[in-house]
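Reposting from the mailing list since nobody answered there.

I have sequence plus structure tokens for a pair of proteins and want to know whether others read the tokens the same way I do. The first protein:
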Amino acid sequence: MLKLASFFTRVSLAWRNHLNLRGIKYGLGLGFALILSLMVGITLLGLNQMEAINNRLVTIVTVNDYKTELASIMRDALLDRIITMHSLVLDSAPFEQNNELYDFHNYGARFSQALQALSLAKLSKEEKDILAHIRKSAAIAQPIVIHTVDLALDKKNGTALKLLQDEAIPAQKELVNELKALLKLQRDANANAAVDASDAYNKTRSQMIVLGSLAGLIGALIAFVAVRRTTFQTSELQKQKLKYQTLFETNSDAIVIMDEEGFTDCNPAALKMFGIDSVQDFIARRPYQLGAPIQTDGRSAAQFSSDCVARARAEGYCFLEWQGLREDGSEFPAEIALHAMTLDDKRVIQAIMRDITERKLAEKSLKEAHDAAVEAAHLKAEFVANVSHEIRTPMNGVIGMANLMLKTTLSPQQREYALAIYNSGKSLLTIINDILDFSKIDAGKLNLESIDFNLHETVLEIASLFVNRAEEMGLSFNCSLNPDVPEQVRGDPNRLRQILSNLVDNALKFTHAGSVSITVALAPGHAADSTCWVQFTVEDSGIGISAETQSRLFRSFSQADGSTTRKYGGTGLGLAICKQLAEMMGGYISVDSIAGHGSAFHLSLPLIRVESGAPATNASSASNPDNTSFMGRRILVAEDNIVNQKVIQHLLRHLGAQVDIAANGREAVALAQTRVYDLTLMDCQMPEMDGYQATSRIRNSIPNAGPIIAMTANAMLGAREQCLAAGMNDYLSKPIQEEDLVNMLARWLKHAPIQQTRVSQTETVENSNPIDMPALEKNCRQDAALVSELLNLYCSSTAALLIELGRGIQAQSVTCARAAHEIKGASAYIAATEVQHLADMIEQTIKAESWDEAGNMFDDLEAAFIRVQLFVGNREAANQ
């Protein structure tokens, strides 16, 4: 609004200070300028047409020269190839034959490249016909030429010479003749282009003469119109002056004009804003007299106003907030826009001012509301964290003790009771986790992982969790993955597992008879993309969902109806969390269902394909390790809750570990300083000294202390980061699940060296063929000729790369990693697994600049490549 008012004011002042005579001059000048523009335009039109004629001629000649050059290359390549074929037939020296064979292929490649380039050029119909004859003749001649060369290489020189003279050379000459015809077409086209350019030039010259005559007539007409229009403008000036003067005086924003001496004018709104009676009284004041002595930024009114005016003069514009001072002494906030302009050849400043008292009051109220909302969100998060801790601590004892009880000898009735306690605890834990996840998502604090994992194994693992339950319910349970679904992908496997588990659990819950199935397929159109959309469908034959219910199905705390909650239980958060998780992962979830006829939930997620050779992570990979693997391990448990002490102690002893208990952080530090522990399980909230302080003291006093794993009931975002910052290595959330504990111990007490794994993989490969032929044949769609060609090409190209790699390692040049990378890629393509693996190891070793190790690996790589060569040679011999 301030900018609009500024525009109106500047226009008003400009019209008010210009004379009518100047407007008439402008009108006449405009008329003659139009005449001049017309003449210049006609001239430029003629020049443009001449330039277009010249450009068209140059383009035609350039294109024809380009096509002539390509045809000449093809002709010369054919002639050179004829000579090379003579040499191959007549020269029996193997070395010379190899050189001639190289030249032969080089000329053929040059011919093919030129032919391909010529095909892409813009061709006339006659040129296309000749080019089609050339392709046809080349297709006829190529097998004859190849056969002739093969006879020469097989030392059948007589037969080769006869075939060369009778068929090969005539076929090549026929191609040469057709190329000569093509060259003649190019020459004729250049000549025709020159004739067309001459005709177009003559035509343009005639047009210019006609247009010049018309321009004179139009110029006279424009001059007449310009004079008449100028007369009309004279009368309009007075109307515009009155119009803009009215806008200036009636504008609701205060508008003031000032020069270097001070104020020169103002509108009535400015007088009203500051409570001043007249314009003369206003312009008699200095700018700083209209403001509070000390402005909001601490500067005096005189200094602040002087700085802002200087900035407006220098930059042309300045926007500021000003603490105004009225005639009665009251203060008010205002925003002012200063614009520098020229009026009557004099530099002035226009100031547009607006009282923003109401806006400031609204901003203050909004800030207070925002601060209150932030404080409420903080209290909410703190409350959820406290509730989580208070609930999870006893839940750890309930579930842990029930689990330990189930491992003892119980009567059927006792086992039934213990199992009921355990399952009820797990159900309660699921509800707690749903509430916490919902709180994290609602606060925007839920983080996602992006790791490589095995999608097939993850889905099958999820399905395996529900097989027994489906059998007990008498339901058919199926899980199928389409063959085109990638196995190794990158994403968040834990959140995928959470969504699918919820969907399958719901399907079983609401299905009394029939079947439940999981289907995984690629979305159409994404089969070859690096980021593929994978669709997971969980379908059941259960009670179904009505159309009206589907509209609110994914809302928080919503279920089909009240009877659903009473009959099946649940909080109504599960599907809402699934939907939000899917959207956070970049996907979406939907449902197809008819009441009484089952439901189908569709989860679509974008997952990044990972190369088959890349390692993948699965949460289940460390599951169920051998219990005796922790035999003799000494573990320190710092836990203040007696029930939790017993649970952890029983679990660890059941796994074969020796356990020491500390009831608080101070005891944990004392024990760690007197004994050596393989691992410490540290509760975070303990009396006397909490787990964070205890960990810091252990790290400071015992630098070589073993891994410390946090145990906390605080599941909110930031708990893990706080644990790691204190010096802990990892994080377990209460209640502690036996599977999670076993996986954590396996992770930190059973690290297998990477190098040993690589060696074992290499040894496995050595015991088999150096090339996985079924995989290669599958990639080549069972094309035997293509397989042989790829193998021969691989052997020849890799031999050169090996030489380059060996020299680079000897010279200790990091750039030779590129050769190792190329060998790795080519080996992966033909399924030479051993060579691929060794090349990958060498590439990483070179990047680490471990040259001795790289030299040793290079010897193994050469041996592996020799095995590939022998395998390929034996295969070729067997096929002949």
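The second protein, same order (residues first, tokens after):
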Amino acid sequence: MDAPTPATGDPVAHRAVRAAVRLLDADTGRLEPPPPGAGRPAAAAALSAVVPAEGPVHGADQLATACRDAAARGTAVRAVGGDPDGVRVLAVPVTGRRGEVLAALGVLAATPRTFDDADATVLAQLAQDVATHLELAAGASSPDPADQLRRQLAIDAARIGSFDWDLTGGEVSWDDRLRELFGFPRARFTGPFEEFTSALHPDDVPRVSDALRRAVETCGDYEAEYRVVRPDGRVRWLKARGAVLTDAAGRASRMLGAAFDTTADHESDARVTRVLETMPSAFFSLDRRWRFTYVNARAEGLLGRSRAEMLGQDVWELFPQAVGAQFETQYRAAVATGRAVEFEEHYPEPLNAWYEVRAWPTPDGLSVYFHDVTARRAAVAEAEQASAAARSAAQRMRVLAGVSEDLTETLDAEEGVARLGQHLVPTLADWCVLTLLDEHGALRDVGSAHVDPAALPLVREYQERRLRALGPGSPLSRARRTGRDVVVPSGAARELCRHLLDERSREVVRELAPESQAVLPLRARGRIVGAVTLFRGAQRATFSPDDLLTASEIADRAALALDNARLYGAQQRIAEGLQRSLLTAPVQPEHLRVAVRYQPAAQAAQVGGDWYDAFHHPGGGTLLVIGDVMGHDVDAAAAMSQARNLLRGVAVTDSGAPGKVLAGLDAAMAVLGLQTTATAVVALLEPALGGAARLRWANAGHLPPLLRAPDGSVRLLEGPVHDLLLGIDAHQVRHEHELLLEPGSTLLLYTDGLVERRDQPVDVGVRLLGDAVAQLPDLDVEEVCDAVLARLVPAGAEDDVALLAVHVRTGT
């Protein structure tokens, strides 16, 4: 620790040093004169010794060195002390009007910090004041008239007035400038002390009197700023400084001082204050010790405190919740770096508000503008919530659209339900199991999914085991029994283990570790057709109402698809059973080999209109029929059965000639009011010489028969005239055609389901049929039917197919 140096010398110098310490938030100051010698300026003689400031003097050696360096160089010096505490030093030269260095003024900060250019400017201004004082003091004792004149001109230019107060007699003497500032007549040079106090603004009298009293009692310095009410009523601001002189006994005898007009400064400050008070933004300023120095009205309102409560108080003590928050870190960063900062931060109760803050450092501390942005942030949060809700709704619609697509894309509704997992995971759950209820009331798990592919084997093991292991009180059982959603918001693993009857199933559940669970029954038309079980892990929040709403919509769509498939299947079985019951086995004459096929459409609604028939005619020969009633439903199947039975009745009561059979059927349909239309080919095959067969046929708007000759060539049997469909005109003349079929010939009668597709015109299909038949090797007629269906009918065909093939035997 350095020994303190006693304060001696010029009192003005002492005040300058103390001001430097106070303004720069330093710990020690020093005014260092140049060393005695021939080159030492006369003005420096007023400094009789080193003048340290109040407070600790740790690092005084570094400060003295820096001051000497500044005096020697004539420039500011910044230095860091060599001890581990990191002492910071700033020193500037005190320069006279001719450029000579009169002294050096320096400050020292014991705590780590960096003096910046603004600090150096403040210290240089103080140094200039010291230089002016030293030169004036030197000029007062100088016999040189030029120096006296320069001194007077400097005083006049600065508009400084002086006073001399006789503390013993009470008389106060003013110079012309001071009397002018007070508005006193220039003829009067002296007056009682009361004359001075009577000129003061009444509000300032106690404060100024107290400052004068303290200076007299301590034989120290006097400093005050006050308002003077001039005789003409105008109010001026003056700033005064003085020093008390003592007599030989050490008693206060006189006070010498000076004053100057600061009205312009106050008016400028007042203008700034008016701006700050009327601005919509909140504003406050802090000094270097984080104390409030100014607070405008808007800031009072936002901070919930009055100016009187805040001015001079520590910001961290008044607002403790700011400590550790961005308020503290950003404010300190601005002061440390010298750069402005902008941020938004929330202050909790009692303010409970969000603020947008802009703070920048100043030579005196920190200035802060801020706005309450709580409403704006709430609006942004509300907009974000609305946007999130919109995104959630869009996501829900995408999921539902995907589910609908999957359910309609496959003809197997159960397969579509089993594929729901890819939509439920991970959108709504981490993993899931899909369950169906069969017609006997038994549950069957048909699918599962997990967000982690590595966990799928474990999920599938659980899927295979759980229905056998679950007890009657499980969430799945409750959902099936009540028909309502069952949600386990937490502890799902424990809940499941309570209802699992075997240890291995419980081990699987513990490994999968579900935290929440939701079981949604698949309900359609008042009955339960299955269930969806969703699971989430502990890292994910439980199911929200929106999650459950989306899951319920998915479950409803899946349930409806399943129930539609059930009804559709039932209808298909009814229609197909009806149709098959009407399509009897064909006859097998000795000279012919007959094969028939009926293949229903993949969808039930497409069953019903196509039929074939092959029976003996009483007049001899074999009657062959292929037909297609318009429509694809149970009604079409019923109409087909009527048309088929009518045709049989007409055929057996007549000659069996194909044209007459069709004409008789058309007439019967009209008489009986059978409101339908149909196409048909009726053919009569009779034995001929040489094992051949005579073919007669008539065509009512149907596709032409296809004939394969023994040599493998293929032709369509088309007549020159195309007759109308049945049910259009009961008086239509039906034309017959005749052809001799050689032994080994094969005749194919077929409906449009064999050759027509959505993306394939019927004429193209007929050509493909001919090509397929031509390419077949010599096959049995049964094999021909199977080969034709395999080549021409795709899986999931939309129309039913009737096919009748007749082969003329050889060697009979």
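Reply #1 (J.P.):
I read it the same way you do. The radius of gyration is 57 Å.
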